[in-house]
Amino acid sequence: MADITQAWNGWRRLITIVVIGALIAAAWWFMGHRESGLRGEALAVALQSVIAGAEKDQSLVANIILSNYFETRFNAARWSGIYWGFTFFAALFSALAALVLKVETIIRNEAAKKDIAALLAVTAALLVTVSTSGDFQRKWQANRVAAAELERTGYRFLENDGTAPRSYLAAVGDILLRRQLAITGGSEKPPAAPTSRVP
After folding, report:
1. At the N or C end, where does the chain have fewer CB atoms within 10 A?
2. What are 123-142's pLDDT values in tens digits?
3. Residue 164: left (phi > 0), alpha (psi -120 to 50), or beta?
4. CA distance 121 to 117
5. Residue ranges covered by each domain of the chain
6. What is the phi/psi pair of residue 192, to 5°?
7. CA geometry: angle at 101 spanning 99 and 104, to 5°?
8. What single DSSP character describes residue 192?
9. Which DSSP state fits 190?
10. Helix segments in 34-166, DSSP class H
11. pLDDT tens, position by position, 140-149
12. pTM (2 d.p.)
């Protein structure tokens, strides 16, 4: 009987490790492949003709707008995945902690039950603490807003046929500064909105 119990305990540990490994691998794959599903393909297609054009200033500015747009979209997707991943796993571990204490048939050893539940509860608390203290939500939102502003600037650039292209650089700089101030929680007053500085 003791051999059967030991074998069952070994299988349970193996199953637990496989499930946790699968969750980590799925999260890693999801984060790695999110960039390919980012919005903005229409803007990229429209700006590619300007980037490939003969006008150097227009090409330079279109490339700057597009590069910064994709960077902020990728950062928004990454921070969103991290924030919601931490939130999801914190909720999951909290629920599992309660489940381990309540279910009688999976783990019969009371000491092991309490240890596992305590580890799950501590892990959930740590995930919430790290997510909150790391301001993952604020980083996600700041990048999301910056990407939307860069997208709008790109369409305005296209709408005006790239007239006075270097005037758009100030707008891009303002957007990136506001993003950094939003991420760091800076109290410095951000510059005026880019709408007044772009033709």
Report:
1. N
2. 889 988 988 888 888 898 99
3. left
4. 6
5. 1-33, 41-196
6. -60, 155
7. 90
8. P
9. P
10. 41-51, 56-102, 110-133, 136-159
11. 899 999 999 9
12. 0.68
